[in-house]
Structure formats: structure tokens, C-alpha cells
Automatic annotation (TrEMBL):
Protein name per Swiss-Prot or TrEMBL: 5-methyltetrahydropteroyltriglutamate--homocysteine S-methyltransferase
Top-rank EC class of the record's enzyme: transferase
InterPro entries linked to this entry: Cbl-indep_Met_Synth_N, Cobalamin-indep_Met_synthase, Met_Synth_C/arc, UROD/MetE-like_sf
Organism listed in the record: Carya illinoinensis (Pecan)
Binding-site positions, 5-methyltetrahydropteroyltri-L-glutamate: K18, N116, R513, C514, W559
Requisite cofactors: Zn(2+)
Limits of the Cobalamin-independent methionine synthase MetE C-terminal/archaeal domain: 424-747
Pathway: Amino-acid biosynthesis; L-methionine biosynthesis via de novo pathway; L-methionine from L-homocysteine (MetE route): step 1/1
Transmembrane domains' residue ranges: none
Annotated family: Belongs to the vitamin-B12 independent methionine synthase family.
Lineage: Eukaryota, Viridiplantae, Streptophyta, Embryophyta, Tracheophyta
A biological process term (GO) from this entry: methionine biosynthetic process
One of the record's GO molecular function terms: zinc ion binding
Length: 757
């Protein structure tokens, strides 16, 4: 059988692209330096796949920032604020769109389907003048060819591109984006004809929106688009690639009937139901690209099981028409296991990163693998994976829905008697700036260059500075600033059993920003308290309430590589029980306000509507498990980041937290519209009053104006005043004046409200 890779990570095995980009942005290196690093990465990836025996090697999946932005550049769809004057788009315009510049803001960024990758959203409207303005796809095809590698150029398909766009500012929200199809197809035709002229024999169109719930009008647009492209595509083998979920049956009919298309790619890891559709009928003489190697996780493939799947497909489409592939681009997994020298040997034998997955695809295609059954068996039977006590405790959860004994308004009254806060109480989200000095202390402690006593002293000193600063600013509910934490998930994972960590297991989140997800390989439990020492130390430094700070179970789950040998909700319930132990220990230690962050609750929402209610039910239940045992007087906060809450607001209410703080300032106050539309919310709520992702310092008036907008739709007695998110990435020179203005705005409004009474 032939073999194929949908796409490959761009950052490099040791984040070479990240460092090259940041050096270029900082003006420390030239555009030529950056291009050289990029060319070296591309050629090593192509060579690696060719050496591994892969037949269909992708090109144009490399990007300096994001593949959707590359398509925007290809189509010349540059928003007018960037003052582009035509011609080939260079780094200046490209990076201005991605990151903004001194005078204009960046384009919006949002999550790529249900992954943790973010793409730059095209801004379109009836007046956009499309033109062929970036020849990257053709240039990269030629570049690979010059190296002796004949690749499959990859383009984001025209229909998915439009469906992933949004109407530009000033364009009617209801503007039909698909009406622009006729304007972008001529450019796609130009690209295709240049690729043909350069010698390409295959071309791949990624149309992942086909896995969404699309109406018949949208499906018809796919039919129209490929009918229009048919004559340009003649003489080429055309692959339409889908990924991340099952293809619904109507979409399957549309897809397999597209004109001029010779091959279809399916995600058979997350889309097992697609197998039934294929068995029910597959177009004769067409190629099936079978995505059996998981592009979104780090587990070694169960080669015997995959081979069984391939065997049954071979009976339907024939050996010469079956191609072994990855379930999606390998962009969403770590790069190369070879760089993990510190990882435990047994655990390492269970893993495969992108480079290893390329080898797995080839092994399945050639059917000459020595079965990896030994590693699979060791993973099933390893005592480090299974913990009977945890399994029992999680199984026992099934009987209850774990709600606190009294309703939220009764609890808020009890808490207010205890905490005695003013109206419009002020707080922050948790972290304070992580200075160079602080990072150095943590690094030296990790490298055993300073003793534990010296480390504890340094961290205590930092906490005391942060406490004093908040008291000087007259903030009502304090935080300890999290100086001891590297990352909100890793910090907890390192103290829970069932987690493993990599040194270079980085995955691109957006632009040059990468995350290093922990690996959950076994049953999760909490051997001993994780945060109690630091929180009680901080509380002992002040008479004001000090928030305990925890990351919630759903966020820990969604930001990790999760074991695939049991349902995700079982792992989530186990994490919830571990966090519950911590919450109760904090309460015993005299911490009366405990924040359990669920930044990533919405991120795990399945793509298909039919699966969403079930996810939300167990995710919200997991959150309630963590705090169902505390006293009425203990105030439970939660925090959520960038999200479209509007569609899950009822689940958020069902979390039954006492206070929720929400990122709001960047979401154009979409959030407040929910309450305007009459959703009744009785718990405390703190929509962020300023954007911490920007170095700008908002004025007192601006913040007061924001709070007034909130008071128009929310009751005075439930509103809290706080920034959007944690302050970890900001400088003290930005944080101090911004918080000073925030407190001043709250006091100004308290005075106004009192005199209005």
C-alpha cells in the first residue's frame, strides 16, 4: 500500500522556528536569517519522510505563523488597515496581520476546531479585492522538487476557507461569506495551473469543515466549487482531506460525488462511524486515504488493530487504491521522541511523537512491522497504570450529582457575613508578573544550585512583596501571585501520580507560542497536599481574605495528552477527586476563598451538536465534585478565558460556583449580551474590566465606563471588579498603574451608587 502524511509540525524538534521568529521580531536577526532556518527545517522534514519511505509527502504545510493566514495572503485578502499596496506579500504585511504593529491591531485569533491550536480569522466582505499575492505553495513545491522530493502541495480548500472567515468590521453580521466563492476560485485556478506547470501530479485540499453539522446550502457550495474547478484540475490526482471527527452521512454523499476528485481522506481515529459509511458504499476506482495513525495524541499505534482496519478496507477499495495515512496533520503532536532522554524507559516504549508516527505509517503500508504487541501489552498490564483505590472511588461517583447542600444566594449571604466585603469588591485572577529574577530562582532550584531553604525563603519574600503591593493598592480579595508555579497545569501534574513530563514535547499553540502538555498515562491521585503550604503562608501575611488557587479537572484534562485506554470522562473524574482532596485541605487550613480555574472547559466541546450535551454534563459534574463538600461560608470562585460562552451559559450556571470571573474585554463584550437577553444569573460575576494581553494601561474613566456597562445588565450586589486574566506575562510597570486605576474606578462607582441611594 502507499503511504501519506497529512501535515507536519513546523516549529522544529527543539523549537528552532520559535527562536528564529522571536529573534527576527526583536530586530536581532535579518529576514534572510529567518528564511534560512525555515528552509533548513523544511528540507529536513521532506528528507526524513522520503527516507522513511513515505510516498505522498506534503508541502506547503510549513508556515511562519498559520496556514489560514497563508491562504489569506495567497488570496490577497489583506484588511485595508494594513495599507498594503499590492505585489507579493512580504514579512512586514504578513506579520502585521498576525501580530498587529505600532499603529494597528492584529486580526482576530480563534481555536482551530477543537484543538489547542489557534488560527488567524480572515476578515471578508463584499468589497474585498482578491488577487494572487503569495506564491508560497508553488515556491515550496519547487523547493522540494529541487531537493529531489516530489511532494503533494496542500491548500486549505476554498469552501472551508470561507466557512472559517468572519465578516470584516463594518460589514453586516449577516453577510453571506459563501457568496464570495466566485471571487476566490479564479485564484485557486491560477495556483493549480502553476503547480501543474511545475510538475505536480497530486494536490491536497483540506476541507475539514465537512465534519461539522452543515446545512444543505453549505453542502451544495462544495458541489458547486469543485464542479467549477473540475477543468483546471484535470490531469491531477485530487485529494480532499477531512479530519477531527466523523463525516456526517449527508456530507459523505456530497464529498464522494464531487467532480474532478480522485481521493478522499478520513480521520478513522476520531471518526470510527465513517467506517460504516465506507462499508455502505465507496465510489469505484477512487482512492481512500485511511487516517489510522492518531495525529492528536502521543501513544504508539496499536499496529495489529490498525492493520485489521486496513485489511477490512482493502476488501472494499482494493489494495492499489488504499493509502495509509495519519488521522490529521501531525501539527497537534510533539515532534520527536528521540530528544526525550530523561523519560522513563517503560513509559517511553508506549509513546510515538510525529517523527515516530511517520515510521508507523510506513510500517503499516509495507505490512512489514514486527508487532509492537509487547509495548501494548506492558501498557495494559503495568501496575503504574492501574490504581485499584482510585478506580473504586471514581466508580462510586456514579450515584450522585454532587451539589452543595444550599443554593447560591443563601451561600453568598453566609460568605458576606464572614468576609464583610464592600459592594463591587476588587480582586485579581491569580498570577503576578514573573520577573527574570524569579524565573532564575526556580531554574536554580530545579538544577539543585540552591537549597530548598534558600528557595522557600526567596518565594516567601516574593509572596510578601505581592501581598504588600495589593494591600497598598487597597484590593479587597488578595492572591499570593503564584511565584512558585511554572504553568497552571504542569505545576499540578508534577504533584499528582499518573502524569509524565517531557523536555521537548512542545506543540504549537499560535505563532511562535508553544505549550508542553503533560502526559496522563495512568490512574490519577494526589499523594499529598500541593498548594496548602503556600496559600496558608500567604494568608498568614494579611488580615484580608487570601484566595487559594487551583486548576480545575477539565482544564487539566483538556491541556494534557490523555490516555486513550479509557473514556476521557473517567480520567476527568479521577482528577476531580484529587482536586477535591486539595480543596478540603485548603478549607481546613483556614482559606475561605478558593478559586478553581476552568479556563479550558469550552475547549473540549465536541464539534458535533449531538455529542455536546453529554460532554458538558460530565465536565460540569467534574467541577462540582471538587467543591461539593465545603461549608457554606467557603466561597468557591472559578475563572474562564477567551470563549464563546453564549452557547454554554446554562452549563456555566450549572457549575454552581459562588463567583465566576470571565475574560470579557477582548470578546467585545459579547458576554454581556447573554445577560441582556434575559438569562437569570444569581451568583457573583466578574467580567474582566481590562485586557491583560496588551501592554496598554487603561484609565480610571475607561474602567468605570466598562463597569457601568456591566451594571446596566447585572445586579450591583453580584458584580466583582477584576482584570481579564492572570498578570504573569506583564511587567510591574504596567500592572501597578492598571490595578491602581481599577481600584479607583470601583471606589468612584461605590461613591456614585451610595449617593444615588
Amino acid at each position: 500500500m502507499a503511504s501519506h502524511i497529512v501535515g507536519y509540525p513546523r516549529m522544529g524538534p527543539k523549537r528552532e522556528l520559535k527562536f528564529a521568529l522571536e529573534s527576527f521580531w526583536d530586530g536581532k536577526s535579518s529576514a534572510e536569517d529567518l528564511k534560512k532556518v525555515a528552509a533548513d527545517l523544511r528540507s529536513s522534514i521532506w528528507k526524513q519522510m522520503a527516507d522513511a519511505g513515505i510516498k505522498h509527502i506534503p508541502s506547503n504545510t510549513f508556515s511562519y505563523y498559520d496556514q489560514v493566514l497563508d491562504t489569506t495572503a495567497m488570496l490577497g485578502a489583506v484588511p485595508p488597515r494594513y495599507n498594503w499596496n499590492g505585489g507579493e506579500i512580504g514579512f512586514d504585511i504578513y506579520f502585521s496581520m498576525a501580530r498587529g504593529n505600532a499603529s494597528v491591531p492584529a486580526m482576530e485569533m480563534t481555536k482551530w476546531f477543537d484543538t489547542n491550536y489557534h488560527f488567524i480569522v480572515p476578515e471578508l466582505g463584499p468589497d474585498v479585492k482578491f488577487s494572487y499575492a503569495s506564491h508560497k505553495a508553488v515556491d515550496e513545491y519547487k523547493e522540494a522538487k529541487a531537493l529531489g522530493v516530489d511532494t503533494v502541495p496542500v491548500l486549505i480548500g476554498p469552501v472551508s476557507y470561507l466557512l472559517l472567515s468572519k465578516p470584516a468590521k463594518g460589514v453586516e453580521k449577516t453577510f453571506p461569506l459563501l457568496s464570495l466563492l466566485g471571487k476566490i476560485l479564479p485564484i485557486y485556478k491560477e495556483v493549480v495551473s502553476e503547480l501543474k506547470a511545475a510538475g505536480a501530479s497530486w494536490i491536497q485540499f483540506d476541507e475539514p469543515t465537512l465534519v461539522m453539522d452543515l446545512d444543505s446550502h453549505k453542502l451544495q457550495t462544495f458541489t458547486d466549487a469543485y464542479a467549477e474547478l473540475e477543468s483546471s484540475l484535470s490531469g491531477l490526482n485530487v485529494l480532499i482531506e477531512t479530519y477531527f471527527a466523523d463525516v456526517p452521512s449527508e456530507a459523505y454523499k456530497t464529498l464522494t460525488a464531487l467532480k474532478g476528485v480522485s481521493a478522499y481522506g478520513f480521520d478513522l481515529v476520531r471518526g470510527a462511524n465513517t467506517l460504516d459509511l465506507i462499508k455502505g458504499g465507496f465510489p469505484k476506482g477512487k482512492y481512500l486515504f485511511a487516517g489510522v495513525v492518531d495525529g492528536r495524541n502521543i501513544w504508539a499505534n496499536d499496529l495489529a488493530a490498525s492493520f485489521g482496519t486496513l485489511d477490512s478496507l482493502e476488501g472494499i477499495v482494493g489494495k492499489d487504491k488504499l493509502v495509509v495515512s495519519t488521522s490529521c496533520s501531525l501539527l497537534h503532536t510533539a515532534v520527536d521522541l528521540v530528544n526525550e532522554t530523561k523519560l522513563d524507559k517503560e513509559i517511553k516504549s508506549w509513546l510515538a511523537f510525529a517523527a515516530q508516527k511517520v515510521v508507523e505509517v510506513n510500517a503499516l503500508a509495507k505490512a512489514f512491522f514486527s508487532s509492537n504487541a509487547a509495548a501494548q501489552a506492558s501498557r495494559k498490564s503495568s501496575p503504574r497504570v492501574t490504581n485499584e483505590a482510585v478506580q473504586k472511588a471514581a466508580a462510586a461517583l456514579k450515584g450522585s450529582d454532587h451539589r452543595r447542600a444550599t443554593n447560591v444566594s443563601t451561600r453568598l449571604d453566609a460568605q458576606q457575613k464572614n468576609l464583610n466585603l464592600p459592594i463591587l469588591p476588587t480582586t485579581t485572577i491569580g498570577s503576578f508578573p514573573q520577573t527574570i529574577e524569579l524565573r532564575r530562582v526556580r531554574r536554580e532550584y530545579k538544577a539543585k544550585k540552591i537549597s530548598e531553604d534558600e528557595y522557600v525563603m526567596a518565594i516567601k519574600e516574593e509572596i510578601s512583596k505581592v501581598v504588600k503591593l495589593q494591600e497598598d493598592l487597597d484590593i479587597d480579595v488578595l492572591v499570593h501571585g503564584e511565584p512558585e508555579r511554572n504553568d497552571m497545569v504542569e505545576y499540578f501534574g508534577e504533584q499528582l501520580s499518573g502524569f509524565a513530563f517531557t523536555v521537548n514535547g512542545w506543540v504549537q499553540s499560535y505563532g511562535s507560542r508553544c505549550v508542553k502538555p503533560p502526559i496522563i498515562y495512568g490512574d490519577v491521585s494526589r499523594p499529598k497536599p500541593m498548594t496548602v503550604f503556600w496559600s496558608s503562608t500567604a494568608q498568614s501575611m494579611t488580615a484580608r481574605p487570601m484566595k487559594g488557587m487551583l486548576t480545575g479537572p477539565v482544564t487539566i484534562l483538556n491541556w494534557s495528552f490523555v490516555r486513550n485506554d479509557q473514556p476521557r470522562y473517567e480520567t476527568c473524574y479521577q482528577i476531580a477527586l484529587a482536586i477535591k482532596d486539595e480543596v478540603e485541605d485548603l478549607e481546613k487550613a483556614g482559606i475561605n476563598v478558593i478559586q478553581i480555574d476552568e479556563a479550558a472547559l469550552r475547549e473540549g466541546l465536541p464539534l458535533r451538536k449531538s455529542e455536546q450535551a453529554y460532554y458538558l454534563e460530565w465536565a460540569v459534574h467534574s467541577f462540582r465534585i471538587t467543591n461539593c463538600g465545603v461549608k457554606d461560608t467557603t466561597q468557591i470562585h472559578t475563572h474562564m478565558c477567551y470563549s464563546n460562552f453564549n452557547d454554554i451559559i446554562h452549563s456555566i450556571i450549572d457549575m454552581d460556583a459562588d463567583v465566576i470571573t470571565i475574560e470579557n474585554s477582548r470578546s467585545d463584550e459579547k458576554l454581556l449580551s447573554v445577560f441582556r437577553e434575559g438569562v437569570k444569573y444569581g451568583a457573583g460575576i466578574g467580567p474582566g474590566v481590562y485586557d491583560i494581553h496588551s501592554p496598554r494601561i487603561p484609565s480610571t474613566e475607561e474602567i468605570a465606563d466598562r463597569i457601568n456597562k456591566m451594571l446596566a445588565v447585572l445586579e450591583t450586589n453580584i458584580l466583582w471588579v477584576n482584570p481579564d486574566c492572570g498578570l504573569k506575562t506583564r511587567k510591574y510597570s504596567e500592572v501597578k498603574p492598571a490595578l491602581k486605576n481599577m481600584v479607583a474606578a470601583a471606589k468612584l462607582l461605590r461613591t456614585q451608587l451610595a449617593s444615588a441611594k
